[in-house]
Amino acid sequence: MRSHTLAPGAHGDAEVLALLERRREAGRGAGGHHDGHRVALVVGGGGMRGAYAGGMVHALEDAGLAGCFDQVWGSSAGAFVGTALVLGHGADAARIFTDDMACRAFIDPRRFGTRRPMVSLDHLLDHILVESKPTDWSSLVTSPVPLHVMVTRAADLAPHVLTDLPDGDAWKTAMRATATIPLLAGPPVRVGDADWIDGSVGDPLPVARALRGGATHVLALMTRTVDELVTPPSDARTPLWARSLDRLAPGLGRMAQDASRHGECLSLLTDAAHPDRVGAHLMTLAPHSSAGVRGLTTDRERVGGATRIGYETVSGVLDLLAAA
């Protein structure tokens, strides 16, 4: 297994991208690969940090690799970005953050503490994804590439996977659930016989789940630079909304700040000899640099910078592999 740094932001086994390129050259398209491998795309969450992953997915689509995956996994914003890839909307996965989400209609800190959520999932699901970037949720029912959406059970903060849902309404509800944080984006969402909240709380980057589910190759898209994962920013403070969450449910505020949760799986992501990776190929792509975007950032210039960095991260490593 070739585990090494390939380009800025890229780390791991080059065989993951090599297999994707072989599949592209074979020209069989989504769901038509019969080479004995199962390739999973895992997309991290993090609110507006999803702009980095949106740029990465746009680059994957432009490179002709979007139809080369067998399954897609995502938490929170990562589930929405993963949906865009599955449905062939890779360019929209990047544009939606600057065009539609970097605004007060979607995120407005002045709403915190009122009866209206600071993050308006109604605006996202019933306006942006209906009028600006139309999304046909029912297409996920028949998609040849299954989508796995992480959610977190509100009662005990245990992670869970929603997949193989029966209709478009169920998928739309699942997407609301994976992005909902109490006090911030609305109350828990009922799916089946339980209430669910943001998937990033329980598992912000479900690489281990993809491996346990039979993936032989995993490409993981990060929404934080490596430095941001291992070194907290010098001005790091627990925000008011996170402190309020901790009063609502002890520990929830810390878990909702996904940097600490990502840190827990760094050994799996970086250690080729990790026991959970035996026999599997894993590559991670993290932004090659930071645009200064955080979960609630609405500065369009910064958010646009994040999508460009994400795109450059993927195109840069693909260019290096092509030249090798």
UniProtKB/TrEMBL annotation:
A motif (GXSXG) lies at residues 74-78. A motif (GXGXXG) lies at residues 45-50. Keywords: Hydrolase, Lipid degradation, Lipid metabolism. Pfam families: Patatin (PF01734). The active site is at residues 76, 198. Residues 41-211 form the PNPLA domain. Signal peptide: none annotated. SUPFAM superfamilies: FabD/lysophospholipase-like. PANTHER family: NEUROPATHY TARGET ESTERASE/SWISS CHEESE D.MELANOGASTER, PNPLA DOMAIN-CONTAINING PROTEIN. This is Patatin/cPLA2 family phospholipase. It comes from Pseudonocardia parietis.
